Amino acid sequence: MTLSFFDQFISPMFLGIPLMALAIMIPWIMFPAPSSRWMNNRMLTLQNWFINLFTKQLLLPLNTMGHKWALIFASLMIFLITLNMLGLLPYTFTPTTQLSLNMGLAVPLWLATVIIGMRNQPTHSLGHLLPEGTPVLLIPVLIIIETISLFIRPIALGVRLTANLTAGHLLIQLIATAAFVLLPLMPTVALLTTILLFLLTLLEVAVAMIQAYVFVLLLSLYLQENV
């Protein structure tokens, strides 16, 4: 029983072929394509309103050079939210519970922000490794600490998203199993457990959206330091 709780995080296979790519591509099919008509339908209007609001809030502290990342941030936000929300449906697979996928998104984007800073303003970017007014004796130690913290950033991005979604899925499965087992023995307790499961599911919907927003927000903060 203990091992079966983690079976939901195994990448699905069909005839020996991993279906990870299919699970990643399906969300893009669900979004409506832009229309050339003057009047859009409700779904497209809601989608455009969300993208405009999110992009405006995210790019507000960035300068003009950082606005070039608007398309990347908006696409990544919608992509992560869709994957996280679809993973809450029964008999579905959540690709964002895989650390390899999250690191594959975090490392290149973080590295791109660092490269942009080193290319455009190397003095300012390297200045983050040594705060102003540091005592001479602490300079080597602080440089090492700040360098380690710099390289830990993409790891923290990937691990945070993976850990939060994995913990949520495990809690839902544990409580659902408890409610199923307690139903013939103690119906009242099973009913209370089912109510708790419903509330936890609502919480996980919020976590799925918040974690996608936090992932993109931290990337925008890393970009803000380098542009």
Automatic annotation (TrEMBL):
Alphabetical UniProt keywords: ATP synthesis, CF(0), Hydrogen ion transport, Ion transport, Membrane, Mitochondrion, Mitochondrion inner membrane, Transmembrane, Transmembrane helix, Transport
Superkingdom of this protein's organism: Eukaryota
Membrane-related topology note: Multi-pass membrane protein
Annotated compartments: Mitochondrion inner membrane
SUPFAM superfamilies: F1F0 ATP synthase subunit A (SSF81336)
Gene3D superfamilies, sorted: ATP synthase, F0 complex, subunit A (1.20.120.220)
Keyword Flavoprotein in annotation: no
InterPro entries in alphabetical order: ATP_synth_F0_asu, ATP_synth_F0_asu_AS, ATP_synth_F0_asu_bact/mt, F0_ATP_A_sf
Keyword Transmembrane helix appears in the UniProt entry: yes
Chief place of localization: mitochondrion
Transmembrane segments: 12-31, 69-89, 101-118, 138-159, 171-199, 205-223
A cellular component term, taken from the record's GO annotations: mitochondrial inner membrane
Catalysed reactions, as listed in the record: H(+)(in) = H(+)(out)
GO terms, molecular function: proton-transporting ATP synthase activity, rotational mechanism
PANTHER family: ATP SYNTHASE SUBUNIT A (PTHR11410)
Family that this chain belongs to: Belongs to the ATPase A chain family.
Complex formation: Component of the ATP synthase complex composed at least of ATP5F1A/subunit alpha, ATP5F1B/subunit beta, ATP5MC1/subunit c (homooctomer), MT-ATP6/subunit a, MT-ATP8/subunit 8, ATP5ME/subunit e, ATP5MF/subunit f, ATP5MG/subunit g, ATP5MK/subunit k, ATP5MJ/subunit j, ATP5F1C/subunit gamma, ATP5F1D/subunit delta, ATP5F1E/subunit epsilon, ATP5PF/subunit F6, ATP5PB/subunit b, ATP5PD/subunit d, ATP5PO/subunit OSCP.
Name assigned to this protein: ATP synthase subunit a
Origin species: Hippocampus spinosissimus (Hedgehog seahorse)
